[in-house]
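User: Could you write out the 3D structure of this protein bound to adenosine-5'-triphosphate? I've included everything you need below.
Assistant: Certainly. Input first, then the structure.
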Amino acid sequence: MEKGDFVVETVDLNKEFHLGDIIVPALRGINFQVKKGEFVVIMGPSGSGKSTLLNMIGGLDNPTAGKVYINGQDISQMSDAALTDLRAREIGFVFQFYNLVPVLTALENVELPLMVTGVPDKESRKRATELLGLVGLGDRLHHRPDELSGGQRQRVSIARAIANDPAIVLADEPTGDVDTKTGDEILDLMHDLNRNLGTTLIVITHDPAVAEHCDRLVRIVDGQIATDRATARKLLEISDEERQVFEELTGIK
Ligand SMILES: Nc1ncnc2c1ncn2[C@@H]1O[C@H](COP(=O)(O)OP(=O)(O)OP(=O)(O)O)[C@@H](O)[C@H]1O
Ligand SMILES: [Mg+2]
């Protein structure tokens, strides 16, 4: 398969953090590929390297060794300007604590990434309004983040993340700051975006119920991929014959 067939590919990705004389090996040889339209969930114990991996994929931090390809492009070979542009256009981020601009309204927060990539004002406004409608906030356009609930804030940050129709959306514990019911609604929304818009998603979560929403569950332990498997949702969508082949090949039932 050509590199260009994957939205994300990591090759022998390693990351060490240096704290004085102490070396913390956060990632130890991660080889991982994501295809367009996949919904991948990453789970694993605290400190296993999940956020570090997502930050490398999003170009927010540099690997110690190994490569990250986004749409077949080696991001370590890109200039700072090209990487900034790639991040703005092709990568949407959703964080646990929203990272919204507090003085801007929901609408303005979603318009921001559109303006950064040069979309004209009128079009930005129209698109941001549509996106907020899509995430169920059509009646909260002019509220500032502190006038919204946690779940609503996360919906705004999801609308912001998909504003430029990125190749991939990366979410680090998007339900970590809300109650279980609100968390389920956020995951349902991500599931809908994946199914209806074909958004490619990589989501870190501690919520075991999330497996219902995703195609693929990757477990990271001690900076390495411990398991990487298709989940029940994916298996429900394949024929009996395909399922049998899958079971024979993988031993997973
Ligand atoms: N900036 C840093 N400097 C030094 N060590 C770091 C840094 N960031 C992360 N680490 C270490 O790297 C390892 C992986 O951290 P990471 O944040 O990726 O874990 P995680 O799987 O996201 O954990 P959690 O579920 O608690 O968020 C940990 O041992 C952590 O202490
Ligand atoms: Mg983390």
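The pocket of magnesium ion (ligand 2) is lined by residues 50-51, 172 (CB under 6 Å).
User: Perfect, thank you.
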